[in-house]
Amino acid sequence: METYSILEVMKARMVDLEQMLHHVMKLEAETGKQAWILYVMDLTGLQYNKKLYDLVTGSMKSLADFMADHYVEMIKVGLVKTAEYIEIPPFKSVKNFETVTVSCGQAHVVTKELKCGARLKWWVRGNRNFGFGVFWSETKNVEDFFVAKQVSPCFPWMPGPTLVPMEEEVIIKHDAFYHIWVSNERSWWRSLEVQLHVEVSD
Q1: Degrees (nearest 5) of the Cα angle 148, 154, 155?
Q2: In this predicted model, what pLDDT tens digit does every residue of 53-84 receive, in sequence order?
Q3: Which of 11, 90, 114, 197 fits a 20 to 30 Å CA distance from 26?
Q4: What is the pLDDT of residue 35?
């Protein structure tokens, strides 16, 4: 995806997709039953980093949308690592979350003053695209979070709605103010609704 444009990649994928569709239709004609392709992905050696996030939400999302539009229900997806199926556990849900409405062009920030050794845990999901980050600063008020120190990778804009919540827990390393930043600043018209849970423990 870094060498070829998304259009060139789609043109190359068309050959494989058409061949798979041909085999599916042939099998359906022979059996009289619906058929599909089991698309197996070997994730051995896959590195989980921001580069992967950009790939999945950018070029790969465009490919997935294209396949969903033109090859409806032809492909089912499975994940394989070292020739063994990986069972993906359901995400952990929380009951005591806060529902927050963030107006267009605005951001919602939760600030906690924490001591070294404390644990900060968060759980968040939204009903549409939004930005999210966790930062720390020596002062309570922060004018620009993009120049603040990051606790975890900041996502200025993520595609939504969030099917699987984002959750993480960190051990505080500095006596400081910690900010959970939820942004709807790129939206011009629509409000954002997020379910947010922030927990602090010793």
Answers
A1: 140
A2: 766 766 676 666 667 666 665 656 555 554 44
A3: 11
A4: 81
Contact 92, 53 (CB under 8 A): no
- Residue pair 192/130 in contact by the 8 Å Cβ criterion: yes
Q: What is the DSSP code string of 8-34?
A: HHHHHHHHHHHHHHHHHHHHHHHHSS-
- For 76-135, what is each residue's pLDDT tens digit? 655 555 444 444 455 566 778 999 999 999 999 999 999 999 999 999 989 988 999 999
In a domain, 123, yes or no: yes
Domain residues for 26?
A: 6-85
Same domain, 12 and 57: yes
Cα gap 94→181, rounded to integer Å: 19
CA dihedral angle for residue 159, residue 165, residue 170, residue 174, rounded to 10 degrees: 50
Residue type, 77: V
- For Cα atoms 99, 101, 105, give the angle at the middle one, nearest 5 degrees: 150
